[in-house]
Amino acid sequence: MAAEALPTLRRVWRDHRRGLLPWGGALAAITFFYMAFWPMMGEEMLAAIEGMPEGLMAALGYDRIGSAVGYVNAVVYGLIGPVLLLVYAIGLGGRLVAGQEEDGTLELDLTAPVARGRVYLERLAGVWLLVVVLVVATSAGILVSNPVFDLGLSVAHVLAASLGLALLVGGFGTVAFALGAATGRRSIAVGGGAGLAVLAFVFRGVADGAGVEALAALSPFSWLLDPDPLMNGFDLPSVLRLVAVPLVAAPIGLWRFRRRDLTV
Fold it and tell me: Does the reported pTM lie above 0.85?
């Protein structure tokens, strides 16, 4: 009976679980690959990085790359993790309602005796489930690398940073999902979610470079990176800010999805 309680979520899982293996494997492998460079970080490479503009170094976290914590923070949590996971989450969020509405497959759920709101919430839960699985794969790459390359990372701090990464990525995935559910247009969902993510990343970099800390603090990337959870551990205020993004976006998308005419 419990398995029948979430038919839409189960369908999302069945449809996407095969893709998790290559995505998860690639994320873990890429993470391990980049961690392998840490022992080879010589003075020449550090000198080359120090030649970058100060604002750009601060935005990318390269100003602290001389330590293992700073290196992992900049490379995994500041760059490759968000970029690759956001590509997946925003694409998935745009596809699960808007994309399937456009190709007519959304009606498989809507013709069943299931409320529209429940379809929305279970599909959104599917986005978060898949994102969490991929963040776990990324974290596994770090945790396996930790003793191999003598990174000296705290496991608890890795988990704290990974929680922030999951909330960041899931938040933008929720924005794309809500936009798709509200408009029925996949292009708007993906374009809007990706545009906001890029704007948030660039905005933090520009604000940091200009020394405008108040503006940089408005970016979700700042909420993830500035408390430096990989060094300091769990930071409740930053987590609550990251949680606020999906908590605002999801109800707006649900409200509109319940009321508009669907093209299925």
Answer: yes
